[in-house]
Write a structure and sequence with these properties.
This protein is α+β, with helices and mostly antiparallel strands. The protein has two helices and eight strands; from the N terminus they run E-E-E-H-E-E-E-E-E-H. The protein folds into two domains: 77 residues, FAD/NAD(P)-binding domain, CATH 3.50.50.60; 79 residues, FAD/NAD-linked reductase, C-terminal dimerisation domain (Enolase-like, domain 1). The strands form two sheets. It has a five-stranded antiparallel β-sheet with strand order 4-5-8-7-6. A three-stranded mixed β-sheet has the order 1-2-3, with no helix packed on it. Keywords: FAD, Flavoprotein. It comes from Candidatus Niyogibacteria bacterium RIFCSPLOWO2_02_FULL_45_13. This is FAD/NAD(P)-binding domain-containing protein.
């Protein structure tokens, strides 16, 4: 069993930058710039365009926030670097190694999205992998004891591989 508490952002001090109460966050572009000149946002507050899933999202993990801060920092000094890091979060819980990579959905109503999953045992290590796709492209995955798949899934997301040929019918 796992329980996620989540977080609540206090954005009261910058109401002119907040996107909306339901979605929350500060809207940024691919350079992490807000709509206000010389203001960038990163981390739990930034609603950024995910170049891999095509959705606007808020990342909620330390590594993503770190990479956003790096990108925003470079851009504050005059660089023009796009944020294009795939979010990865891992945790060990009850003897399981659980990893979330990329955007695992759910996608907005009206989007065509199918999650394909498969489970199998490998020796004494039970592994489960659930892959999220959109338009025949991998957008993310949940791995339980399946970290050996992390590299190939990362490549599939990063390079936007068309995976329709892997399955008999289009996913």
């Amino acid at each position: 069993m796992g329980v996620g508490i989540g977080l609540e952002r206090n954005l009261d001090f910058m109401p002119h930058l907040v996107v909306g109460q339901l979605s929350g966050g500060v809207q940024v572009n691919e350079y992490l710039e807000t709509g206000t000149s010389n203001v960038w946002a990163a981390g739990d507050v930034a609603r950024y365009p995910d170049p891999f899933s095509g959705r606007k999202r808020i990342g909620g993990n330390w590594s993503g926030a770190f990479m956003q801060g790096r990108t925003a920092g470079f851009n504050m000094t005059g660089s023009k670097e796009r944020f294009k890091t795939i979010s990865v979060y891992s945790i060990g819980h009850l003897g399981l190694n659980i990893t979330f990579i990329g955007d695992i959905g759910p996608f907005a109503k009206g989007d065509i999205s199918v999650s394909k999953g498969f489970a199998f045992a490998s020796g004494e290590k039970n592994e489960y992998v659930r892959i999220s796709t959109k338009d025949n492209r991998v957008t993310g995955a949940v791995l339980i004891n399946g970290q050996s798949f992390l590299g190939i899934i990362n490549q599939a997301i990063m390079n936007k591989w068309d995976i329709s040929s892997i399955f008999k019918k289009s996913i």
